[in-house]
């Protein structure tokens, strides 16, 4: 154990014995405190090393060992706060990137969906008027009985229009996605 006067003199002269002594005295406590705040052993070690580097680079003239202790703990506190702020920025950036990727993926899914829908609607427009109405109402989710009632036709006529429309659309649209959609919508 170094006397306070000897420690302060060695530290003022930047003698390695002072740093070794302080390292032995405070490293374990500083690391435990840092680990408590950052929850990562490797980061805690790095922060404590940074504190000792700050002490080594400091030109401050310490008057007591308590001044040194205050310097070490307050430096560690500031480094932990700084690390936490940087980590929050990194985490937010990461979340923004992930969100952006999800939004971009959703965007392209929506583009594809709209493209398929536009092509399907363009093909439906080429159908005979009554068949076209039946197909559009089917797309709107109406049942055959509801379509028959609205158009004042029989349910069998609705089924015939759906069957004929499906055949004509299948012949026009050769894409696998569109054929699958036609099959799904008008089973």
UniProtKB/TrEMBL annotation:
Molecular function via GO: DNA binding; sigma factor activity
UniProtKB keywords: Sigma factor, Transcription, Transcription regulation
Signal peptide: none
Domain RNA polymerase sigma factor 70 region 4 type: 119-169
Highest rank taxon of the organism: Bacteria
RNA polymerase sigma-70 region domain sequence ranges: 22-88
Keyword Cytoplasm: no
Statement: the UniProt record of this protein carries the keyword Transcription regulation: yes
Gene Ontology annotations of biological process type: DNA-templated transcription initiation
Similarity-based family: Belongs to the sigma-70 factor family. ECF subfamily.
NCBIfam families noted in UniProt: Sig70_bacteroi1 (TIGR02985), sigma70-ECF (TIGR02937)
Protein name: RNA polymerase sigma-70 factor
Species of origin: Butyricimonas virosa
């Amino acid at each position: 154990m170094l006397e306070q006067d000897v420690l302060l003199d060695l530290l003022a002269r930047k003698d390695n014995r002072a740093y070794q002594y302080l390292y032995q005295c405070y490293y374990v406590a500083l690391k435990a405190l840092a680990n408590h705040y950052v929850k990562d052993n490797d980061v805690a070690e790095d922060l404590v090393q940074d504190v000792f580097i700050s002490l080594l680079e400091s030109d401050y003239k310490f008057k007591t060992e308590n001044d040194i202790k205050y310097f070490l703990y307050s430096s560690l506190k500031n480094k932990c706060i700084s690390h936490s702020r940087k980590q929050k920025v990194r985490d937010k950036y990461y979340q923004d990137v992930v969100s952006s990727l999800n939004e971009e993926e959703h965007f392209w899914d929506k583009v594809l969906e709209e493209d398929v829908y536009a092509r399907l609607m363009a093909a439906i427009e080429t159908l005979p008027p009554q068949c076209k109405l039946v197909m559009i109402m089917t797309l709107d989710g109406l049942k055959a009985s509801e379509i028959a009632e609205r158009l004042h036709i029989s349910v069998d006529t609705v089924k015939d229009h759906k069957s004929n429309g499906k055949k004509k659309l299948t012949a026009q649209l050769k894409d696998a996605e569109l054929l699958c959609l036609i099959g799904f919508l008008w089973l």
